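INFO  loader      accepted 1 record
INFO  loader      residues=903
INFO  predictor   begin
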Amino acid sequence: MSIVCVFLLISGASAQTIDRRAAIAACNASEFASVLHPAPVKYEASAYWLSQQFVKWPGASKVGRFSLYYSALGQIQAVVGAKLSGADGVVSLAVSDKILPVALTNRFKFVENGLLLRLADADLARMPNLHKQQIFLVQEDPNGVVLKSASLQIPGALDDLYSSAKEIRDLGVHVTARQTSFKLWAPTAQVVGLCLYDQANSRANTFEPMQWNANSGIWSLQKGISLKGKYYQYLLDVYVPGVGVVRNRVTDPYSISLSGDSKRSYIAQLDSPALQPKGWGATSSPRKDLAQTDMAVYELHVRDFSINDATVGLAHRGKYLAFTEPASRGMRHLQALAQAGITDVHLLPVFDFASVPEKGCVSPLIQGGADSETQQASSSVAAGQDCYNWGYDPFHYNAPEGSYSTNADDGAKRIFEFRQMVQALHKAGLRVGMDVVYNHTDAVGQKATSVLDRIVPGYYHRLDALGQVEQSTCTPCGNTATENMMMGKLMIDSVLQWATQYKIDSFRFDLMAHQPRAVMEELQAKLRAQTGREIQLLGEGWNFGEVANGARFVQASQLSLNGTGIATFSDRGRDAVRGGGAGDTGADLMRHKGYINGLADQGAAASDLAKTADMVRVGLTGSLRDFSMTSYDGSIKNLEQIDYAGQPAAYVSEPAEVVNYVENHDNQTLFDINVYKLPQDTSRIDRVRVQMLGVAITAFSQGIAYFHAGVDILRSKSMDRNSYNSGDWFNRLDWSYQDNYFATGLPPKADNADAYPMIAPLLANSLIKPGSPEIALARDMFRDLLKIRSSSSLFRLRSAADVRQRLHFDNLGVGQNAAVIVGHLDGAGYSGANFKSLRYFINVATNSQQIQIPDALGIDYVLHPVHTDVNAADKRIAAMANFNTASGSFSVPARSAVVFVQK
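INFO  predictor   done
INFO  writer      dumping tokens
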């Protein structure tokens, strides 16, 4: 059927049309949007649709009458003290005293007190069309003079009107041999059509109108041919508050792939054999029976992994395909880690993000001295055009990032090559995790990288009391609102796609506490149902921003996830080990010592050291809230009774619900934070030992063990505290083990300038930078610790009951030697224990220590076999660590982590 124009009849307004010729021109225009009818004024959205029938208006009184005015072209003007103008029509509202359903009350509990208003039943049928227009809430006197006015926040109404959309399973593009279908949820759009392109960069010569479904809010199009391999965009006319009626050309939020720089969505079917590397169907995740507490994760950035590796083919460096070269130094490193005990590689964002040019990014030439500013200057100048970013700026959630593909303009390649990467890592014995960022998008409003907000303005993002987008998770990004039905659905659909189509084994959620617990649990259940296996969910449970303390919903936060099996990162043990906190600046970076890097030797009060040791023990238990222990002051406490900055130190119900770490991509690396805190004359080998003490505490802690790539080779970012956009120079890894990249210039000014007076002399101190012998020692000590952790299930206890029954600490309470932590694990009858019992010792003192344990009298303890192996990295342990069974006395070397076992 030939259609020249698209018509949409709007109640109270003239028909809206898109002429085919104008549509084709818009499909090919250099600009992605054009304003068809500008709005004269922008109004604050201080009133809330609670449902399709009820409106809440904070601060409004019952005086006068209440009306909803509407304008298809967005021409309403409302001035207090004058009559409203520019409206096409009006709908009356009545003041209501109805008691709302509990679910509705809970959802909008954050809205301030105000007047509840109700639409008449007879007007409800008009609302789908009216939501396509400017709708304005007005309080008037009997003569029609405006007393108060407001725009409205729409999510409650749209979720109620279009509740059936949540069950639609084929949003986006779907292709068979004989048909191609497109579906887009855009309930407020006045017109929607499809721009079709034969190639990534060709002009459109086809525009197809799409059909509106008033029940679901979905626009759809079916073509009786396969369009696979082509590209598309949507063209829609939509009212944008404060802008007017806008013709937006936009990619599909459900894009499975894209052309270069994410300009156009790609048409394909993900289960097509053409998009699957050889053997993909038979590729399975290693260790399908893995318990969550078995996880030992290596967190890695795709570009970091190979851009500096000369043994990787030039075309593959910084790309997905670097992982397919098993003989490269990087892959041999990962293979060795897998053999030692790493179970998972977690990749920093690999979904499509906005910050890196996918075509034509640059790699600046950088050079300079140890404490020079020239390196950071060169890196910073190129930051917007270079090939580097961590990628925490989501553009399209469901598509692989194009800058990691060998050809970003080929929509098939990024899919195919991503799968090759996963396949290669699985073959190396490593499960694959994804870092996902559903808490914000790169942009909102009418910006080029704003997708969701240009399709349904004002819906997908969390708004404040005046209708402004919240930005607590990222500035100038916009916080998404996964409590809104279709944003929650998008997150769930996206994760399910990555798990089912790309065989991703686990997910790490950035700022997960900005998601509702209920949505995360729904996702968890659907993953189990659709994959038939456990897909582990981990996340940052930090409690802050507009959702803090459950202000809007029960959060997926540290204190709110007990019993879910969803894990959060623990800052308790991290801060105790490293010293200070993630937000430390200035002199605090040096002054706040940690358990491993100076607290025992700076003359601190014995109680301070013992108190910190207790916090480390909290982490070693898996942060179990009901684990009972004698604290440093001699009192017996459940660990949730120990204070951590006004919160319970221990906060989980099960060990699987905590992620233990001392270093990840955020903040200074462990090596760099230790440079601040250790005396400058600390020997290079002692710096290795201090680093490995931190690793040992993570390895011996119950729960999930999480390690940042390079922690095993003394990775430095030349003291950079926030290297997300610092380029390759400050994020390099050296798999040849020659350099850790300390003292390669002052880090970028934007996040580090205030610390330059402290950093510069440290970088200039040539005694600090390790050589290849120290890097190799750290590498091998790390692998030994992994081997010890994997040697016994006692380090990976499955349940809280197991931990309470089998773990206890010696050397506790008043009079303890707080420089040594002693853990005892009972293996009697425990599957996979491999030892009757074991005792581990963490000695942070600068000299050897002797600890007498009466309970060990007469027991035949010997050093763990990894310590006595001829290839053991730390030779001091076999030579110096010993146990006297007659006295129950253990001796352990300075700055060492030692395990004794009872066979």
